[in-house]
Specification:
This protein is α/β, with parallel strands linked by helices. The protein is about 30% helix and about 10% strand. The chain has three helices and four strands; from the N terminus they run E-H-E-H-E-H-E. The protein has a four-stranded parallel sheet with strand order 3-2-1-4, covered by helices on one side.
């Protein structure tokens, strides 16, 4: 499965443009999914330096992505396009609490 994962308000508490406290249970949940072979896309409105800070922050937590703000390379190749809408099986953000792990940090 492919998960498009929001940053502000989901992987961390919302403190935009800063980075809030980590939502540890959610981060651990996605590290586990990645270890199981699922693919992860960082799906955020951040750009430029703020985006780079978010990517580095996630890496320090052990969370790595297969793509950032775009569909997976295999999907882009398969469909021959890079539309604004990111392709994923699940879209995970602070408005989709049904996808939250059982214990919230």
């Amino acid at each position: 499965m492919v998960y498009a994962i929001d940053f502000d308000g989901y992987l961390c508490k919302n403190a935009w443009p800063g980075i809030g406290e980590p939502n540890t249970a959610i981060i651990e949940h996605f590290i586990k999914l990645k270890d199981e072979g699922h693919e992860l896309i960082l799906w955020t409105c951040r750009e430029g330096e703020l985006l780079e800070l978010a990517i580095a922050w996630c890496a320090r937590k052990g969370l790595f992505f297969d793509a950032v703000n775009e569909s997976l390379p295999a999907w882009i190749k398969k469909f021959g396009t890079t539309p604004r809408k990111i392709g994923a099986d699940y879209y995970c953000d602070d408005k989709n609490y049904w996808l939250m792990p059982e214990k919230e940090a």
